[in-house]
Structure formats: structure tokens, C-alpha cells
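Session log. Operator J.P. requested a structure for one protein chain; no other inputs attached. Running the standard single-chain path with C-alpha cell output.
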Amino acid sequence: MGQIYRDFDSKDDIIAAICEQDISLLLSDVRLFDDSRIGGPEALRTWIEDYVAHQPGLDQCRMMTEISAEAGRNPRVAHILMDLESRLLTKLDSTLNALTNGRIEPIVRLRIVKIMFALNLGLMIQRAAQPDYDTTGALRPAMDLILGKLERLMLPK
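Structure written below.
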């Protein structure tokens, strides 16, 4: 354990590095943020499917659960987590805006991506507690509801 503290000044620095690495990996996943699929409902459906299919490994779920708990105790870790969440939500919002050709109001898009984020985080915590939990099966109905809402919002007025 002493070796790790030679590379980092504190536990907060270790957590920050882990968060940064995880979010960087997630943000580099082109399937989740490919806005070249601009179009109609089919592009949205593919994006939603990719989001549902993107489930982190069990170790990542456990780590995220620990980091979330630490954020409740440690203001610096909470700030790090909020910053990373903000970056992820911005990227999700930008992708959703492109996929919907800008036809959805920014406040509505933000609400939708926050729901998507919260669902995914909640399922990570669930999976950390119950490794055999079917996160895809649990997430799919919620994402179908979101997709239905998006499709209705994109209908010509």
C-alpha cells in the first residue's frame, strides 16, 4: 500500500485518478457518442441500444459504488464526481442534440440525459450489491420509455 502513496499525495488524488481514467474510457467509447448517425428514430434507437448494452464490469460497478459513498463524506471527492458527471452529461446532451437534429429543447434534453445517467448509476450500484442482477433487462424498459418520448418529441408539429 505504501507504494501507491509514493505516486499520489493523498487518497483523494487516488480517487481522482481512478475517476478520470474511468470517465476518459467512457467518453472515448465511440458507440455512445457517435453523432454522425444524425437522423430520425432509427438513429436514436441504435444509440439507445448501444447505451443499454454498455454495462461496466463488476469491478467498475463496485469501485463506482465506493467512490459515490466517499463523495458523501468527502467534499473534494464530491467535487471531482460532480465535475466528471457534468462532462458526461454534456457529452450525452451534445450527442442527443445531434441525433435529434436539434429538434428537442435543451431543457428537455438535459432532463432526459440526467435520467439516463441516474438509471445507469443506480444499476451499477445494484449490480455491485447483486453481481448476477440483470442490468440490461432492468434498463431496457426504461430506455424504451425514453425512446418513445423522444420519438414523440421529434414528430412534426
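Operator note: DSSP finds seven helices and no strands in the chain.
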